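Summary for the steering committee. The consortium agreed at its last meeting that each partner would contribute one worked example illustrating the joint modelling workflow. Our contribution is presented below. We chose a case with several input lines so that the handling of multiple components could be demonstrated. No manual editing was applied between input and output; the record is shown as generated.
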Amino acid sequence: MKRPAIGIFGAGWVGVVTGACFAELGHEVVVRDIVSERIEALQAGRIPFHEPGLAELLERNRERMSFTLDAADLAPTGLMFVCVGTPPTYSGDADLSAVWNVVEQLPEQEERSLLVMKSTVPVGTGEKVRESLDSRGLAHVGYVSNPEFLAEGSAVKDFMRPDRVVVGAFAGADGETVAALYEPLEAPIVRTDVASAEMIKLAANAFLMTRISFINEIANVCEATGADVVKVAEGIGLDHRLGPHFLRAGIGWGGSCFPKDGVALKQLASNSGYHFQLLNAVIEVNELQKRRVIGKLEKHLGKLRGKTIALLGLAFKPNTDDLREAPSLVLASRLLAEGAEVRAWDPVADARHLLQGVTFCESALEAVTGADAAVIVTEWDELRSLASAEARDAMASPVLVDGRNLLDPEEARAAGFTYEGIGRAASPLAALPETEEREPQLEQ
Ligand code: UDX
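What follows is the complete predicted structure of the assembly.
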């Protein structure tokens, strides 16, 4: 059966991954963007970002994919996915100007066509787009919400083997059409109204953020009481009602989605007259978590002025070059503000344009050489072997703060490092309050 052609608005990370995956499923795909350098790069076979497996997918499906600046080239497709950015505005609300530009630039189509929203938008956006289409005499353009749940670094796998596909439509038949595209993936498909589909995306992200802030607060209490958060998370996660995912304590989340979507949901609630207390706390906990490393460094080094600190990993998580809202940026800025000298290394992310005053190094070993302390900021695989005699001897003092609990504390200490993780007491007794020995009371 011939699979229908698909048009994609937006050649960003979501658009290119979505397009390449649909091409892999046998669709002809036309991707349109307004940035000519981006389109030229993609036409020449270059991908303007780092995503494992994507280059191979594009190469394999070259014949089926085209890239264009002209919205009219999407006219023959009939199925038009919106994959444009919805960054935060100064107020924290999502900026929907790129979405509205797409709605205004829709190519003329005689027959019934579908506009499918993949971008993350506030609840109620579909309703507004529907009204706008109707008022322009475009009742024959159907609207479907089909949010993406792609995580950077595993986006191709997330598309091809999704936990679920969410399809929210105003008209049942439109929902059928979009759901049918995903049939080859054999994933559960949640069919719903448009507003609920929009909320599923925001709520799923908010819940994941809540889990991370929760385990980070448990980690902080573990530090104060002598428990080990890694073991605690294992013990929690084996309860089938809770599950093991998103319970890794660390120095907080970052990235292109959580920070923006968390604030967008918070604003959406408050614009609707509701104070989302829990979400506010979840966001605040994350902000404080990014800064806790400073206290750990001061505990070992005293004042940080004039001290040299190596930041290992800058991307907001491994397997991506994305620096958006990365905890490393907050950490580096705080260290510079304290008067520390900052040396940094990341295997792919280039932060030169974002962090002035930081010395960038070619390897982790180069970064730690002469440093008073090293901080694991991103859990890159390359750092698993960091606790070596070579690294220890290269440092001015072997203080290692493991912001992602990547290393085994015993091994790191055995290798001669003063090791601190997140939520792992320095020694089983270190966090216990001092108690006086009592004389045994004789029974009367
Ligand atoms: C996320 C969602 O997973 C995805 O479904 C959505 O579409 C976009 O946002 P992404 O931002 O790419 O994807 O990364 P993800 O792997 O989910 O990690 C997000 C952040 O949480 C990272 O900063 C990561 O370091 C942090 N994290 C994750 C933790 O601190 N602990 C965990 O246990 C898991």
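The first strand starts at residue 6 and ends at 9. The domain at 194-444 is CATH 3.40.50.720 (Rossmann fold).
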